[in-house]
Write a structure and sequence with these properties.
- This protein is mainly alpha-helical.
- The protein has one domain: ABC transporter involved in vitamin B12 uptake, BtuC.
- Helix content is 77%, strand content 1%.
- The protein has a two-stranded antiparallel sheet.
- α13 (249-265) runs antiparallel to α14.
């Protein structure tokens, strides 16, 4: 693995340190927007570890997010909420490993449809379970303060960004890119394709599970249709694609761009927002497939030596 440049490390630490003081100076609205931004950064970075580097498009990350939220509400009152957060990440990771073994045998549009179907299957399964139990929504009473939840989400965003950076510049990351370029050739030269893909799938589910657990506390209730909303997966894909899908800077730029767009349009004209979102995705896929990070910072793709 390449060492992290000192300048990059200092900038990263300075930004996280400055952001951690936001609750002391920002209004409730600013903290809420910053929490939303951190959430989407964490989710988009996690998507990048699997999809941006291997080329496997996934519309199923809402499943990991929703599962994390469900673990939080099931353990509420029996475990410390802060212990439930890593537990939710672990459960989502184990689910991804179990589902990924057969799912990763297909790719292309088949994998996209499979992951979307997996998320919908999980959503309706939990809806059925909750209906059987006589539960149609679950309230969370006595959740931590919004400031505490913001700091937790900031930590998850920082962890997800660091994971993406480390993976991107490691032997593992180069192996994932080789799989993206030509899977059979990668296997021929000795890359353990199946193990690398499954590891990336499990790793990409860990942070979303914890994000879902934190957001369950932020929303103070759990409703399966909302927690497993397909729009979550769609937003993740759009942010990663607009920012640049195999660079840790990309999800940051994509999340910043779309959070700004959301604040301008979502509350006033949600229909227009969805139209603009779809148009942006089409534009970047056709005319700027490398994303904003490549357009702004340039830089040739690193090669493994």
């Amino acid at each position: 693995m390449q060492p992290v440049p000192i300048r990059t490390s200092l900038i990263f630490v300075a930004v996280i340190g400055a952001a951690s003081f936001l609750p002391q100076f920002g209004s409730e609205y600013v903290v809420a927007v910053a929490l939303s931004f951190a959430m989407w950064v964490a989710l988009a970075q996690s998507w990048t570890v699997l999809c941006g580097m291997t080329g496997y498009g996934s519309f199923g990350h809402a499943a990991f997010y929703g599962m994390g939220a469900y673990v939080q509400v099931l353990t509420w009152g029996t475990l410390s909420p802060w212990l439930s957060v890593p537990l939710a990440g672990l459960v989502s990771c184990l689910f991804a490993l179990a589902a990924g073994y057969p799912a990763l045998k297909v790719r292309g549009p088949y994998f996209v449809m499979l992951t979307f179907g997996l998320a919908e299957f999980l959503k309706f399964s939990i809806i059925g379970i909750e209906a059987t139990l006589g539960q149609f929504s679950r309230l969370i009473i006595g959740a931590p303060s919004p400031n505490a939840l913001y700091l937790a989400m900031l930590g998850l965003a920082a962890a997800a960004t660091l994971i993406t950076y480390v993976v991107s510049n490691s032997r593992f990351g180069y192996g994932l890119r080789a799989i993206r370029e030509e899977e059979q050739a990668a296997e021929t030269i000795g890359i353990p394709v199946a193990r690398y893909k499954l590891t990336a799938f499990g790793l990409s589910a860990f942070i979303p599970g914890m994000v879902g657990a934190v957001m369950a506390m932020r929303l103070s209730y759990f409703e399966p249709s909302q927690a497993f909303d397909a729009l979550i997966s769609f937003n993740i894909v759009v942010m990663a694609m607009i920012g640049g899908s195999d660079d840790a800077r990309g999800p940051l730029l994509g999340a910043l761009f779309l959070i700004g767009l959301s604040e301008l349009l979502w509350a006033r004209a949600p229909q227009v927002y969805m139209i603009v979102l779809g148009a942006l995705l089409v534009f970047f896929v056709l005319f700027a497939p490398q994303g904003l990070a490549k357009q702004l910072f340039g830089g040739a793709r690193r090669r493994a030596t």
